[in-house]
Structure prediction request, 778 residues.
Amino acid sequence: MKKVAIIGVGITPFGELWDDSFREIGIKAGFEALHDANISSDDIDAIYVGNMSAGRFIDQEHIGALIADYAGLAHNNIPSTRVEAGGASGALAVRQAYFSIASGMNEIVVVGGAEKMTDIGDVEVNDIQSSAADQEWETVFGATYPSLFALMARRHMHEYGTTREQLSSVAAKNHRHGSLNPKAQFRREIKPEAISRSPVVSDPLRMLDCAPISDGAAAVIMCDMGIAKKYSEHPVEVIASAQASDTLALNQRKSITEMLATKIAGKKAMEMAGIGPADIDLAEVHDNFTISEIMAVEDLGFFPKGEGAKATLDGKTTIGGDIPINTSGGLKARGDPIGATGVAQIVEIVEQLRGKADKRQIKDAKIGLAHSVGGTGSSAIVHILGVGQ
Amino acid sequence: MKKVAIIGVGITPFGELWDDSFREIGIKAGFEALHDANISSDDIDAIYVGNMSAGRFIDQEHIGALIADYAGLAHNNIPSTRVEAGGASGALAVRQAYFSIASGMNEIVVVGGAEKMTDIGDVEVNDIQSSAADQEWETVFGATYPSLFALMARRHMHEYGTTREQLSSVAAKNHRHGSLNPKAQFRREIKPEAISRSPVVSDPLRMLDCAPISDGAAAVIMCDMGIAKKYSEHPVEVIASAQASDTLALNQRKSITEMLATKIAGKKAMEMAGIGPADIDLAEVHDNFTISEIMAVEDLGFFPKGEGAKATLDGKTTIGGDIPINTSGGLKARGDPIGATGVAQIVEIVEQLRGKADKRQIKDAKIGLAHSVGGTGSSAIVHILGVGQ
Prediction:
């Protein structure tokens, strides 16, 4: 297997992008990444696109071909592959691209992630998000995406004494980080007390526990490390990629206070990289709800089970803390355009490892981890990136 | 790159499967393939799933995780990847699985394709099919999937003198083949005159020019050829895989009487296999409309441009002819559950190369080709299979 590098990144502002269509944001992120990598579209061998539900959000399937076309790559007739795994769709695109280069099949690949969620009504958005859970055993009975995570939060509180104040500390920290990120959907701090007083969505989760509905796109250019130096003085290396599945429905799992798929994918990725949690300088994790970040930092081994919430309240996961989590603002504050999210995580890690994260910069960051979840944890994908040699 | 074998195939009957849910048909096909390959689910390293639009057909995204779960593979937590490229979704899953084995990443992989299209109304089905074309430049103005292919048919008639009688000969031949396939949706012959008199859908295309709306699933087990003999006395080898893109909208193409993506993917696949069209014993091509098969047999090089329709009327593409096309009955008669179609084509080629196609058997079949199209030709995927050594 060849070593794989990231030589370019691009990202649109996340938010309610009324003036841009799906294809426009996809192309903006892609061009920014091509420009950053200093390559032309003629150098590209293939495209991988992460997208969850454009068929329902904008009446358009066949997103792979669309992106190839609107990126001006249709004249090269290069293959374009759309992948989907709910909230992990963007990470899945990165993973497929990684293997296509590691195997020697492709040299240079564009990975794009995009979602346009605000062109339809909020109720329908909720239906679509919930379609990553189990339609026959959960959503058909009225379970929504937030309500399934509320079950996990309530059980986590019961088993580990996790508190309202601790949940709020996750969102407050991510809003603080987001305030430093010019591409974030929400660029202002929110006091923990305001989070704890925000309207209940599904008890115990409140509005400010939930990631927002967002439009946005992100892209990365990946290539064989053997040629990366031609394009970039400081290529970032993808040193591990791992993926795991779990049951689609929550009721089939032994525990709902952990995500087994995250534990397995995290463990495999660290084995592949030959490192442990203590070697990681920063991580972007899947905080679609505050409880999700707490479970993630536990399941990835940054903190023992049951201690993720306290660690967050104690400031261990903030910029400057032991293990900074979601320096971009995370899904909560940077925004969560579903298919773009996993790619946006990679963009943030690359900027950190390049030392270009400005006010969010983690000093001497050498190794970063990105973690994405599909559904309520039925898919998890972990990538580990390092400063290239 | 390692050699890749197919050691097991499974397929449900195609049709209006009122008694089976999406997950049931997916699992039936998968279990049949596992049984055929004589392996247990514990041997599987990964799953790839082709599905176009379960989000809209059955309110369920995250089909990769769903299939992993319902195949009983969630306890192994193995990675599952859903891919989508409109009508080429199934072929795209085969292709991703092929590369995952050729690269050495996986040893044994299940590929599934499935779609459940009859649980909603026909008008909505038409909307969904059309979402593989260009939403902003075609379907929003009222263009439907059949109407776009009708434009191609009319222009083909204008340029090459293709006739109504010739179009009907495609469907009549595929229904004749389908009558020999116990899994086909339509298992009776239809006279060409009846096809020519069927109701107009979009002039010049009539009802019996169009593939039906179908439910169904198909699965194949693929593995490293180095271990294939452990499981199968007669493994079939995947000797080539190629994919190409073209513009999403018809109006952007230089010609609408050919599919450039098909030409490029076909040429690349034959180069990879080191063969030409004359070396191929049979082919499954994407006959979602009669005109599509005519363009496909020309674009793949079986007949010169403009002569595909006459060749079909002359019987050259029938079982026993020069190059038998769609011995399964094709999309027209076997049925077209979108995500399953590309996998079902592989199932048919494997059965033919094993000499197990019963009344449809092509004598001494050694090399077969499968061709899938997404949208109106904006994605094309070609696989070439051969009798394993």
